[in-house]
Design brief:
Its main location: membrane. One of its GO terms (molecular function) is xanthine transmembrane transporter activity. By secondary structure, the protein is mostly helical. The protein has a domain at 16-139 and 163-221 and 233-350. It has helices at residues 4-10, 20-48, 53-76, 96-103, 109-131, 140-162, 174-193, 197-200, 202-216, 246-274, 280-299, 310-318, 323-338, 340-347, 351-373, 381-399, 412-415, 418-447; strands at residues 89-91, 305-307. Strands 1-2 form a two-stranded antiparallel ribbon. The longest helix has 30 residues, at 418-447. The protein is globular and about 65 Å long. The N and C termini lie far apart (61 Å).
């Protein structure tokens, strides 16, 4: 007879259940890591649309609600939707450039953005079954290159946080660097000298210690906490009926295609980390959730959603690969969306605290990509060229964001995303060097 312990051991890492306290703590780590990115998109778009501070706060709560729901669905799966892996969802940066332009266009504004989001989500639901078939074009050579690029394109974000973040009075000041070093050092020491549960929550421990020191140093700004309500519901279509403008809809549909390309790379990365094969059916479920979240988001006053790359690093860093951790994290996001004061406290975490954690985790994403590249034939000169050029293309918009500024605006979702640039390059060069090239060589051999 099989014992409960043996049954647990037989489960795949993604399906294992953790004790409640550990589940909540590791889930809270995921929330802390992605929170800054989750609130950044509504902040940027709300300011571009000229919304008041109260309206922008409402946008943030709406984003947290949809992110929480989408994370739970993506992680646990409901019917044909959800990839059933530890995925965190949130508002996608791929659409920011297009939405900022829309916000300033006459007759579009915030209602036009929500309308375009709804239409693009519906478009995504239609094309997800076809996009899911591209998984065969992601061998270890392409997957490893994309995952390496994900880590490298995220790393500047961690460095920027460590220096104090955007708007820091004295970027790179010793106080910021000290906080980041303390967080990073705590994570490293916990991983070196402790085991089990403590390693799983090492990022949380480092960030908690950094937050306390930052608070003692006067770096935590709680101005406005007293005026923030305790409880607030997110009502659908708070800003009025969505508007559907053709140009905005087409632009956002392109964004959804780019999100699908990025998500495919991220799902494959998680598949490698969790030991779960990403077949076309699994990929279809994941992309359906991305599209469904965007469709729902437009009705609930928020924007296109996708999986968050930075949380892949946390899965690799902690070794906790259970999807129930992100289910817990999604539940916490929903609670935060209903409790503005709690959300305010999480938002008060100084960037330097996030920077120390980000250096370790985003570096782990890069290390995962390099590990996967070992499965490919890197001794082949064409494969070396594929890796070199694709990583270079991925870093181009990171090193010089204005490099493609003279190109048409509709290309911005691609040219402003290092992940999208690296993915498109790796896919194209793999077709050129290996798939079409292999076919041509086979035909030549047959002819001889």
């Amino acid at each position: 007879m099989t014992t409960p312990t043996e049954r647990t051991t037989a489960l795949s890492p993604a399906d294992q259940r953790l004790p409640l306290m550990q589940l909540l703590l590791v889930g809270f780590q995921h929330v802390l890591l992605m929170y800054g990115g989750a609130v950044a998109v509504p902040l940027i778009v709300g300011q571009a649309a000229g919304l008041s501070r109260e309206e922008i706060a409402f946008l943030i709560n709406a984003d947290l609600l949809v992110a929480g729901i989408a994370t739970i669905v993506q992680s646990i799966g409901i019917g044909p939707v959800g990839i059933r892996m530890p995925v965190m969802m949130g508002a996608s940066f791929a659409a920011v450039g297009s939405m900022v332009v829309m916000a300033g266009m006459p007759g579009v504004g915030i209602q036009g953005i929500f309308g375009a989001t709804i239409a693009a989500g519906f478009f995504g639901l239609l094309i997800a079954p076809f996009m899911s078939r591209v998984v065969r074009f992601f061998p270890p050579l392409v997957t490893g290159t994309v995952i390496t690029s994900i880590g490298l394109t995220l790393f500047p974000v961690a460095v920027n946080w460590a220096g104090g973040g955007n708007g820091a009075t004295h970027f790179g000041a010793l106080e910021y660097l000290s906080i980041a070093a303390l967080v990073l050092g705590t994570i490293l020491l916990v991983n070196r000298f402790l085991k089990g549960f403590w390693v799983n929550v090492s990022v949380l421990l480092g960030m908690a210690l950094g937050y306390l020191l930052a608070g003692a140093s006067g770096m935590v700004d709680l101005t406005g906490l007293d005026e923030t309500p305790w409880f607030q519901l997110v009502e659908p279509m708070h800003f009025g009926m969505p508007r559907f403008e053709l140009a905005s809809v087409l632009s956002m549909c392109l964004v959804v295609v780019i999100i699908f390309v990025e998500s495919t790379g991220m799902f494959l990365a998680l598949g490698k980390i969790t030991g779960r094969e990403i077949c076309p059916n699994a990929l279809r479920r994941g992309l359906m959730c991305d599209a469904g979240a965007s469709f729902l988001a437009g009705f609930f006053n928020t924007f296109t959603h996708s999986s968050f790359a930075q949380n892949i690093g946390l899965v690799q860093m902690t070794g906790v690969r259970s999807r129930y951790v992100t289910v817990a994290a999604g539940s916490l996001l929903i609670i935060l969306s209903l409790l503005p004061k709690a959300a305010f406290l999480v938002a008060s975490i100084p960037p330097a605290v996030l920077g120390g954690a980000g250096i370790a985790m985003f570096g782990m994403v890069t290390a995962t990509g390099i590990k996967i590249l070992h499965e490919a034939d890197i001794t082949d000169r064409s494969n070396q060229l594929l890796v070199a050029v694709s990583i270079g293309m991925g870093m181009a918009p990171v090193v010089r964001p204005d490099l493609f500024a003279q190109l048409p605006h509709w290309m911005e979702p691609i040219t402003h995303s290092g992940i999208a640039m690296a993915t498109v390059s790796a896919l194209t060069l793999n077709l050129l060097f290996n798939i079409f090239g292999e076919k041509n060589r086979s035909q030549q051999c047959t002819a001889h």
